[in-house]
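step: validate -> pass
step: tokenize input -> pass
step: predict -> running
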Amino acid sequence: MLMKISDHFKVSVDELLRGDTSVVQKIDSEKKKKNHLQVFIIILIFIAGATILGLYFKFKADNSVSFTMEKKETYQETNTAQALIDVGKGYFTLPKSGKINIDAEASTDDGKLHIKITDDKNKIYYQLDGQTISDSQTLYFDKGSYVIQIVADDYTEDVVSMKYYIKVSN
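step: predict -> pass
step: emit ->
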């Protein structure tokens, strides 16, 4: 209250108290304690925030998957003589069960593409088929290793051009 009165009348607290240095020292001491407490609280909030942020990134890193497959290829008569072309195969591992995002785009000028994600027991977790494929979704996967396989079939021409892009992340 003394500080406010002092500020209002534009006189020092010392002058207000007529040289009572013990009261002035007490006020200064309380002001310093208040400042120290504010600094301590700010440091405590910073440490708590850094700890929470660190735990979040550790959890995210422990369960993260970042996997991409991409290819653009033209197959000639020697390849298209086969009933099925194994276009691509990729592998990724999920450290913990959880949701992962799948983005897939694929196209071929002749025939169909088949994208399939299976686990090590050949359980199918994801499958897409078609001449033009476009998909983006979030699915639940169990902890474990997975295979992405892309094959082409049903083509009638001697030259088949195709491209695909698959991204798996969480």
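step: describe -> The domain at 66-169 is CATH 2.60.120.380 (Jelly Rolls).
step: cleanup -> pass
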